Amino acid sequence: MYIDRDQALRHPISSIPFDVERGRLRFFARTIGLDDPVYHDVEAARAAGYPDLPVPPTFLSNSLELELPNPLGWLAELGGDLTKTTHAEQSFTYHALAFAGDALLLRRQVIDVYTKKGGQLEFVVKRTQILRGDDLLADIDFTIALRHPEAVA
Prior knowledge:
CATH class of the largest domain: Alpha Beta
Structural class: alpha+beta
Order of helices and strands: HEHHHEEEE
Radius of gyration: 18 Å
Oligomer: single chain
CATH topology of the largest domain: Thiol Ester Dehydrase, Chain A
């Protein structure tokens, strides 16, 4: 079953509040091999001109959403078959940095649905806007491919 594009563009997806914690940032930085002291030491971060530990670039990826009890529930609500999904693409557009201690809001919405290969592949693009108050910090676009093997190209 294909997803109705017009319905998907109007479908509400709940926002996610997220408090940025130092310990979590340190763990993430260590895990991905960031050894610059600004990601581990508050004094080093402040000496570099930051108010606190900066958030590493990929920290705000959809991995935060994967911690939800049903991270792709919004796709299932649209009729997407979760057994036929593949992560297709992800892109980041940064507008400002986030720091430890920030209270963020991840505002999510579907921004596109399209098919390729004669309908054998359907793509759903979800945008997550990262906000600190009214300030937009980042736009993260996440594309999921759904396979439709029954379609004849």
